Amino acid sequence: MALLEVKDLKVRVEEREILHGLSLTVNEGEVHAIMGPNGSGKSTLSHVIAGKPGYEVTDGQILFKGEDLLEMEPDERAAKGVFLAFQYPVEIPGVATMTFLRTALNAQRKARGESEYSTPDFLKKVREVSKSLNIPQDMLKRGVNVGFSGGEKKRNEVLQMALFEPSLCILDEMDSGLDIDALRIAADGVNALRSPGRAMVVITHYQRLLNYIVPDFVHVMSKGRVVKSGGKDLALELEASGYTQFEDAA
Amino acid sequence: MPAVQETVERVKRIDVDQYRYGFETLIDSEKAPKGLSEEIVKFISQKKNEPAWMLQWRLEAYRRWLTMTEPTWARVEYPKIDFQDIHYYAAPKPKKTVTSLDEIDPEILKTYEKLGIPLREVAMLEGIEPKVGEQDPAQRKIAVDAVFDSVSVATTFKAELKKAGVIFMPISEAIREHPELVQKYLGSVVPTSDNFYATLNSAVFSDGSFVYVPPGVRCPMELSTYFRINERNTGQFERTLIIADKGSYVSYLEGCTAPQRDENQLHAAVVELVALDDAEIKYSTVQNWYPGNSEGKGGIYNFVTKRGDCRGAHSKISWTQVETGSAITWKYPSCILRGDNSRGEFYSIAISNGFQQVDSGTKMIHLGKNTSSRIISKGIAAGKSQNTYRGLVTAHRKATGARNFTACDSLLIGDKCGAHTVPYIEAKNSSATFEHEATTSKISEDVLFYCIQRGLSQEEAVGLVVNGFVKDVLQQLPMEFAVEAQKLISISLEGSVG
After folding, report:
1. Total domains, chain A
2. CB 3.0-4.6 Å disulfide test: which of B43, B133, B212, B345 passes with B167?
3. Which residues are in the ABC transporter domain (chain A) (predicted)?
């Protein structure tokens, strides 16, 4: 079943059109990689799906589980199961990670009309998940991402993904700023979350990440459009020949 | 619409009319005629059955006041106050002498109930107390002195405090019952000639709280005063005097509310603290006077003089304030570090929204050797408000080894507000170590979006970020107040964004 349908999407930022009619369909259980050079519109796509302010959709449609996503506030989208793992997760001084996780999870549950987690249940859940991601308990007591290393920040994103159990995960340049060991830990966390009911969109420059998170489909973006789609081998092909061959196609 | 733009739009629509405590209580009251003269001062003194020395003290202050002019150095603007257009005394009409809570006008009790203030110690004394070993810290006993307009209406837990030797009573009673203490200490920290508003207060104050903790006694419970302005066109001039004798400890809380009114109301209080050798006073305030409506109409003018004197060696005074209300706040709780090795602390959260103007900070005056002080100030400005931190840290020639650490952080929400920091630092000896740190930041759209992407509403996101910003100060508050203050902060910022 189609989870996410992007149809002929056109997006402007301050008078400049970034996406010129992009289409993409992601079904439940699939992992899609979106590759492309800097400025091809990859991050714009992820931001528009999540509802970041500052982007103007001039044409097209985004359906999520058949519903018009563009009509929803960003927090509603989160509650419906859209999760964006940020390229640069922000720091929130003075707000303990544990407090943040609990506040966010309960806000989502409340929006869905579910009961809030009790403290013991919540703690139990967090402990399980953080253990599997190799996240020490005292990291959860620190301010959100404050003083975290690059690897810790990304693991914190994966931790939230695991806790909130979204049906669509968008990973924006998850490999940026990570060494190989940190990348492997984060990727293992992501792989553990692959499931038949959940889809992922992995945005990256480099094929490297796709050695760890192996996609079902690869799309190449250039100048605001998807210019080529294929299986996982397309990524290897790109690694060998580069993006320039697509510049003209766009 | 980009988020910044959206924030601006929301701020334009800001509504500070959500003040929760804006109700008025209909009770009979007795008011002095408007205006100020020697006759009014005498009238107040007479109403209070004061001894001659007290009247003399007031009259001297009044004559002094006539020679003074209003200070204008603060970064606040307001129309000139007509001091002859104010009632200087208003009291709920006494039916008879009040000896127990049951004899207090039920309307007043209801008011305090609405405010969530536990005047009914009775309930706590009769079996609702937690059993030994399972004391819930949130239900600790708090002795309350409630001041309604100009008069103290009820003081709870008097008997229990008396057992410990602690005197906690309205200052009007203390003047009659403990004249030796009052005469010795009243005006010894804030002299009658101190400043325009303090001098005015000295002439016309009608009530307030008095605390004396004898040597070596740790006050067995938190002491608390709730101030409520009710009457129209009434100034409230309360006077608080707290003395911690050698080696004693007391924690004191102060809360303030007022009804919503179109006209501005004047509040000019004086608080004096005296800590003798090895004594410690912790003074916490949650100030939530009516801030005025969304057009900036009405609200309390809060011109307050608060000062603590660390008179003895190794004494300590700590001010913690959460300032969310008032149209204008002019307030600098200060410490005079007279005793050697004494310590002063100032922790402040000042939030301004709508058209509020805040000019607040502290003075740390180092006189004794090896004195130390710490200032943590968090200013949050939203709407069209102006928020100024003004602080003085000074070391006297003889204050060798004086140390101060100051951190002033300001957070701006929207782009129509202002945050200002005005530190004055003077070291008159070379061994003093003063550190000053200041930051100003805007609440970042990226941080808000991160929170919202995780399911928080815009308002929840702002609340979370702001509570993180003020955490260092909230931790200084007694637990009962910290929870209240946290809620208050969220309410004060409602409508400041999304």
Report:
1. 1
2. B212
3. 4-248
Gap between the Cα atoms of B393 and B422, Å rounded: 11
Token pair of B212, please?
């004396």
Distance CA A192, CA B292 (A): 55
N-terminal to C-terminal alpha carbon distance within chain A: 29
Task: Decide: helix, strand or coil at residue B269.
Answer: coil
Helices (H), chain A: 42-50, 74-80, 97-111, 119-132, 137-141, 150-164, 180-192, 208-212, 233-241, 244-249
Closest by CA position to A250, among listed A19, A61, A12:
A19
A156: contact with B, CB 8 A cutoff: no
Q: What type of residue sits at position B99?
A: T
Summarised one tens digit per residue, pLDDT across range B229-248 is 655 556 678 899 999 999 99
Domain extent for A183: 2-249
For the segment A167-212, what is each residue's pLDDT rounded down to a tens digit?
Answer: 999 999 988 878 888 888 889 989 999 999 999 999 998 888 999 9
Q: From the candidates B451, B459, B465, B497, which should be mutated to test the interface with A, based on the most A CB atoms within 10 A?
A: B451
């001091």: which residue's tokens?
B83
Predicted-complex ipTM score: 0.95
**B188 near A CB under 8 A:** no
Contact B400, B431 (CB under 8 A): yes
Is B441 near chain A, with CB under 8 Å? no
**Model confidence pTM above 0.95:** no
Annotated domain spans of chain B: 3-126+138-492
Task: Judge whether A58 and A11 are in contact, CB under 8 Å.
Answer: yes
What backbone phi and psi angles, to 5 degrees, belong to B210?
-125, 130
Instruction: Name the minimum distance, in Å, from the CA of B319 to any CA of chain A.
Output: 21
Q: What is the CATH number of the domain that holds A245?
A: 3.40.50.300
DSSP 8-class letter at B326: -
Contact, B167 vs B174, CB < 8 A? yes
DSSP summary character for residue B236: B
Option in A54, A74, A91 nearest B453 (CB)? A74
- C-alpha distance from A231 to closest chain B C-alpha (Å): 30
Q: Judging by DSSP bridges, how do beta strands B270-275 and B299-310 pair with one another? A: parallel
CA–CA gap between residue B185 and residue B211 (Å, rounded): 11
**Contacts with B, A 24-53, CB within 8 Å:** 50-53
Two tokens at A10? 């056109």
Indicate yes or no: CB of B450 within 8 angstroms of CB of A92. yes
User: How many whole angstroms separate alpha carbon B478 and alpha carbon B465?
Assistant: 22
Distance from C-alpha of B42 to C-alpha of B21, rounded to nearest angstrom: 33
Instruction: Give dist(CA B210, CA B242) in Å, integer.
Output: 6
Within an 8 Å CB–CB cutoff, is residue A105 touching chain B? yes
Q: Of B386, B249, B275, B354, nearest to B12 (Cα)? A: B354
**Structure confidence by residue, pLDDT tens digits, A221-233:** 998 999 999 998 8
Query: CB–CB of B248/B217 below 8 Å?
Result: yes
Q: Kind and range of the H or E element at B442?
A: strand B433-442
